[in-house]
Design goal:
The protein is α/β, with parallel strands linked by helices. Helices cover 32% and strands 18% of the residues. It has helices at 22-30, 48-62, 75-85, 112-119, 125-130, 158-169, 195-203; strands at 3-8, 34-37, 67-73, 96-100, 144-149, 174-179, 210-212, 215-217. The strands form two sheets. Strands 2-1-3-4-5-6 form a six-stranded parallel beta sheet, sandwiched between helices. It has a two-stranded antiparallel sheet with strand order 7-8. Helix 2 packs across helix 3 (75-85). The protein starts with a strand and ends with a strand. 43% of the residues are buried. Mean pLDDT is 93; it is low at 210-221.
């Protein structure tokens, strides 16, 4: 079984945050997960980014990956969650999602800069609902790993709480890790938010080979 991760950096759909791109892919690679950064379209309304991401998922599967994981941060977390919860084809479904301080809702505590891009000139309640991740969760959603800090003043922690609540109601397996400090955009943690240790454990079943003592065992989720 081969696992491939797609990393989606944040940046309010205006830019791609460098510290949430290759450094994250390198970290995943160090855990034995093949990873690449997807620089989705910026400054263009939905569905431009969604189309590019889901098409890339389908291509990765066509190239031989049996399992695909998304790792997204801030606005990239929204892009990852949207791709996971609204796959246009079976080939673009993913097996797991890792989200750091994600933009989730455009209904409650909306993230204005991301909304301005995605909604373009069509800012209607129906469109805000269609882009709010908490409204899209169904029981067949993939497992999620989410982390957020209480002192995040750009994307409030309520975003992750809304998503976790929707996942819980749909009985979708997920982990929610909340930290007292860390602000927004901590990337790999910077020695302040130790989310990577928890994510390391969560990712273990998706690694092609799990090392246990001197034994090599293939694992699957």
């Amino acid at each position: 079984m081969t696992t491939h991760a797609l990393v989606l950096p944040g940046g309010s759909y205006h830019h791609h945050a460098a510290h949430e791109a290759e450094p994250v892919a390198d970290w995943l690679g160090g855990l034995g997960v093949t990873a690449e950064v997807v620089r989705y379209p910026l400054g263009t309304p939905h569905p431009a980014a969604h189309r590019v991401i889901t098409e890339r998922i389908a291509r990765v599967r066509a190239e031989g990956a049996s399992r695909v994981i998304l790792a997204g941060f801030s606005a990239g977390g929204h892009a990852a969650g949207l791709a996971a919860l609204r796959p246009p084809t079976p080939a673009s479904r993913v097996d797991g999602v890792l989200l750091g301080y994600p933009v989730v809702s455009f209904l409650e505590h909306p993230h204005q800069r991301s909304g301005e891009v995605l909604l373009g000139g069509d800012d209607r309640p129906a469109n805000r609902t269609a882009l709010s991740l908490e409204t899209l969760v169904t029981p067949d959603a993939p497992p999620f790993f989410i982390f957020h800090s209480f002192d995040d003043d750009k994307v409030p922690v309520e975003h992750s709480l809304l998503l976790s609540g929707a996942l819980r109601r749909a009985r979708v397996p997920h982990e929610l890790h909340l930290y007292p400090f860390g602000g927004h955009g901590c990337g790999l943690g910077g020695g302040v938010v130790d989310w990577t240790a928890a994510a390391d454990r969560w990712l273990a079943p998706w690694r092609p080979v799990a090392v246990r003592g001197s034994d090599l065992t293939t694992s699957d989720r």
